Amino acid sequence: MNNGILYILAPCYNESEVLPMSSKIFLDKLNVLISDGKISDKSKVVFVDDGSKDNTWQIIESLHELDSHFLGVKLSRNRGHQNALLGGMSTVADECDMLVTIDADVQDDVNAIDKMIDEYYNGNEIVYGVRDSRESDTAFKRTTAQGFYKFMSFMGVETVYNHADFRLMSSRAVKALLEFKEVNLFLRGMVPMVGFRSTSVTYDRAERLAGESKYPLKKMLTFAFDGITSFSIKPIRCITSLGIFTFVLNIIFIIYALVSHLTGNTVPGWTSTVISIWFFGSLQLIATGIVGEYIGKIYLETKARPRFFIEKYLK
Fold this sequence. Notes:
The chain is of the alpha/beta class.
């Protein structure tokens, strides 16, 4: 039997309600995999505290004291889900052969890890967890989530459909991912760029064990916009295309206005004037905002500030 070292890494932000339950689920899964000879008994569960405001870190410390299979990484302040994932990866990349990232709420099926490990031993260095269905979601959540993936694809961002951040990566793939130095993180777009042999496994997603979702609609929209502007210049090209289209419309309108004036059919029109002013004014503001978003990202990248700081590592 293969027995590589597996680390299960879960970012946490104000997860004090769910950690007592999810930690038991993770540990049980780890013990089953160890007893089955699939992984080494040196395998661990790593919780990354993303600057939580509740007692999440105190719970992680207690878990670490109770069982050496639990490790803890504490960021110096809240840096967001993607930075928490990357911070944990950078801390443990040298200690494991493979690493599974999963949310602490255990909505992702831990039993899918078995299939991920099998695929890893079959030679795949990246194994994506892909949702088989979204029956557990509300109609609104299901519609917006599916629209998110389709829109990202339309905008030219390479992602795996119905895949979030539940995946297995080999140590080599993790270290390759850490070579990406951008500040604006969108791991769902970055991981496919790593390359290496990859595959997917499907699973059914459950409801949260406790607590509230850390990705409400507002944060999801921000996340999607970050992903698009970090990996695609299609919005700028759309603006260019729209500008050309409206320029052609203006030429047609000018010709129509001149013909109407020469034939004496002109009638002063307040409505058409106001509509054109509002339309082109709003168009200019949208275009300026999108271009400004790209300039803002360039500004953040050129400063090259550290993405996170590790305050503590319970090893």
